[in-house]
Amino acid sequence: MEALIFRIHSVFGEMILPVLIVAAALYLTFTYKVDAPQTLIARLFPYLVDLQIGLGLLLWVMKLLGPLSVLGYYQGFPFIMHPVLGLLAMGLGHLAMDARNPVRSFRRWAPLASLGVLLLLVVGNAILVRLV
To answer: Which of 23, 26, 32, 125 is the most buried (most CB within 10 A)?
Structure first.
């Protein structure tokens, strides 16, 4: 079961989620309208990030309870950075699609800017895991 969750988390986080972030950023930038209600993509996108983070946290807890947990490997630096950056990405994913987006003054470019930061966070987190 752990191997299946790991595989889904890896493929979704390294291959699918970055493409979805770019696609959502481009779509939301090109279809921007002042004071328009949120599109279906803007409402669903944060939950895709939540799914990825949920799988990752489930996997992390499983590893914390596994045989290597006595070594403290999964609580130490830099491995602890992966779930911390994941939680930060989850918050940013929700904030990017919210009316309280800190870069909302960018108007049309707000989704591109905030999702660009999210993309850097997701890709950086994937690279971090490969280095560990």
So the answer is: 125
The alpha-helical segments, DSSP class H, found in 12-39 are 17-30
Which two three-digit tokens encode residue 106?
Answer: 């960018």
Contacts with 26 (C-beta within 8 Å, 6 or more apart), sequence order: 112
| 71 residue type, one letter | L
- Tokens standing for 2? 């752990």
Closest listed residue to residue 45, CA positions, set 80, 96, 112: 96
| Amino acid type, 8 | I
100 pLDDT above the threshold of 80: no
Nearest to 118 by CA among 52, 30, 58: 52
What is the rounded CA–CA span in Å between residue 123 and residue 22? 12
Residues composing the chain:
132
Under DSSP, is residue 74 helix (H, G, I), strand (E, B) or coil? helix
- Measure the CA–CA gap between 114 and 95, rounded to whole angstroms: 8
Query: Which pLDDT does position 73 carry in this prediction?
Result: 63
